[in-house]
Design goal:
mainly beta, 9-stranded antiparallel sheet, about 10% helix, 5-stranded antiparallel sheet
């Protein structure tokens, strides 16, 4: 699988009109593969890196672990404590404060008061974001948490599953709400335990979620502007659409935002703001994959399907007015004859767009606003409240599997997008371990734009060339993991499979978030894997040589979330790195004491890298 990927990437890179001007160099030494039980419980890192010819010692620095307080506020808020809509602490079953160990993206921001702050996500239901005041050592660059507090989401009816994020060109935090609740469950009275957990935010029991929650409140980008520790503005940008939002990433034009949709049978979206630096109004688009190569992780040109224009105030009004049954009529797909694929009745649009899984649906847009006609206004309402469903109905591609992080490479003017798995809807009526044409869950009812020849559950990172308007024109694999087992996409069981790691430990397993080091030709790739690697890893990828270097590994059962690079903050560069839910995703039997469960929010520090 490696050869076709490298050749495809090389062929497209050769089309670039110019070679990037790269001024800096960074070379990491290799972090070891954890082999012993002690190593698998630890955070291991590259011992050194050579930056612009100077060797520096590396190590992982922790700012806060979940449950900790700031150095100057020992009796203050505990990092990751969840609260209800009235600001009261939520309690665990044993009556203790409920501390989330699902630490996720943490940004470093300059406040209007000139101080350095961190805004941190907790990927829970209800979600939480914490604002932390930081002190920076002027000699070493070491960051220390002075005090921390939860941000107030009560005017927005709470936050939801805050996953990855980014920092806008104008210096604000742009967060996310992942795995938006399926509003059809509220119509049908089939609300899952996962979605119903949000009811606790309203002081209710999960069984009451149908009456206390509105699913259309969640699934949007969240922008945070920090004035100071006691003053930060929190707003959801409803105009940007409602997704299982991994993150939004703003381009240098300060208008174009790419948004990744995490899950099964999902899409890639582009928002273009009406005004630079203002994400409260704009137009939304979804990508359509035009396949050119089925080998490896595939290759395609991209078209963009227009989904309408809206502003935050409009959409907030629609959230209060409309429910799923107001937006769509729905009919059950039926097979014309035994053995034939099911189709939709006349007048209904057939789609396959996921929430928990692939889902063949027959939908028809209603006269949502009851003005006597089904027209563009009804389409706009559907585009913001049911973005993925409407995107599929309009002909966009909703066949991607676990689309994750996005970053921009200004040296090559291209995007990088992580795909945690190349599987399911990305194949041709198949999934990993099944023959082509033998499994229809993810393609039946949809357009089947993606017809890749073989699964790779170890995943891949794609590159996308941009035109002069920051519109992506193609999509091709840059680097992929190597499966060792047939259920992960290998042609045969590999003799190198150790019974634990289903992806080669010298390559990727389920790439998650990515960040680029400008002018240093280096892409940083984090993992979110279960059986691919027993211990998740972060990698440095040299874009010229194609060399992968392991730079960090994390403890049993944890995820590496949201690596993010800052080239120069007061003379120091930082690579943020968060270790989420140790012992939480796997290997729970290895837990020795409760303190090992707490997540880590931390970083690597380097001399300024602004060559």
């Amino acid at each position: 699988m490696k050869a076709p990927i490298k050749s495809a990437a090389a062929a497209i890179l050769a089309l670039n009109a110019c070679v990037p001007a790269l001024a800096g160099t960074i070379l990491f030494s290799e972090a070891p593969v954890p082999r012993t039980d002690a190593e698998k419980r630890a955070i291991l890192t590259s011992p050194q890196a050579v930056v612009d010819g100077v060797s520096i010692d590396l190590g992982y620095h922790t700012i806060l672990r979940s449950g900790q307080t700031g150095a100057q506020d020992a009796d203050g808020y505990r990092f990751g404590q969840l609260h209800d809509i009235k600001g009261q602490p939520l309690l665990a079953e044993d009556g203790s404060p409920y501390i989330s160990n699902d630490n996720d993206f943490s940004s470093l921001l300059r406040g209007a008061d000139g101080k350095l702050y961190m805004v941190s996500h907790f990927e829970s239901r209800p979600g939480a974001m914490y604002l932390t005041e930081l002190a920076q050592d002027p000699n070493t660059g070491v960051l220390t948490a002075q005090r921390t507090r939860p941000l107030d989401f009560s005017p927005l009816r709470g936050g939801w599953v805050h996953c990855a994020g980014s920092v806008t060109p104008w210096g604000t935090h742009l967060g996310s709400e992942e795995y938006e609740p399926d509003a059809r469950q509220w119509r049908d009275g089939t609300i899952t335990e996962y979605n119903a957990a949000m009811a606790t935010y309203f002081g209710a029991m999960p069984a009451e979620a149908g009456s206390v929650m509105n699913p259309y409140d969640y699934g949007y980008p969240v922008e945070i502007e920090v004035d100071g520790f006691d003053s930060a503005r929190v707003e959801k940008h409803y105009a940007m659409g409602r997704l299982a939002l991994e993150l939004g990433y703003v381009m240098p034009d300060r208008r174009t935002v790419y948004m990744s949709d995490d899950g099964t049978n999902v899409g890639l979206y582009r928002f273009v703001a009406d005004q630079p630096g203002d994400l409260s109004a704009g137009a939304l688009w979804v990508a359509r994959w035009n396949q050119k190569d089925a080998h490896g992780a595939g290759r395609a040109t991209l078209d963009w399907v227009y989904l309408g224009q809206a502003d935050d105030a409009q959409v907030r009004d629609w959230i209060g007015r409309y429910r799923f049954a107001d937006l769509f009529d729905e009919a059950a797909p039926k097979a014309p004859a035994e053995g034939e694929k099911p189709t939709c009745p006349e007048g209904f649009t057939s789609i396959n767009a996921g929430h928990e899984d692939g889902d063949h649906q027959c939908l028809r847009l209603r006269d949502v606003n009851q003005d006597g006609a089904v027209n563009w206004m009804d389409e706009n309402i559907a585009s913001r409240l049911e973005t993925r469903r409407w995107a599929a109905m309009q002909g966009g591609t909703t066949e991607f599997r676990k689309m994750e992080g996005i970053t921009y490479d200004p040296d090559r003017h291209q995007l990088y997008v992580a795909m945690s798995e190349v599987d399911r809807g990305m194949l041709d009526y198949s999934r990993a371990g099944r023959a082509q044409g033998s499994y229809d869950t993810y393609d039946v009812g949809g357009p089947n734009h993606m017809k890749l020849a073989q699964a790779n559950v170890c995943g891949a990172v794609y590159a996308l060339h941009l035109d002069g308007n920051y519109t992506a024109v193609d999509m091709f694999p840059l680097v992929a993991g190597t499966p060792l087992t047939m259920d992960y996409g290998a042609d045969a069981e590999s003799p190198e499979y150790d019974g634990v790691n289903k992806c080669d430990v010298n390559g990727l397993a389920n790439p998650d978030n990515v960040t680029y080091m400008p002018r240093y030709d280096t892409l940083i790739i984090g993992e979110d894997t279960g059986s691919g690697h027993q211990n998740d890893m972060i990698w440095s990828y040299d874009l010229t040589s194609g060399r992968l270097t392991r730079i960090q590994t994390t403890p049993y059962g944890s995820e590496t979330t949201s690596p993010y690079f800052y080239p120069d903050i007061n003379g120091f560069a930082y690579l943020m790195s968060v270790v989420q839910h140790p012992y939480g995703e796997s290997d729970a039997d290895k837990l020795e004491e409760p303190g090992q469960l707490f997540g880590y929010t931390g970083y690597f520090v380097f001399p300024a890298m602004n060559q």
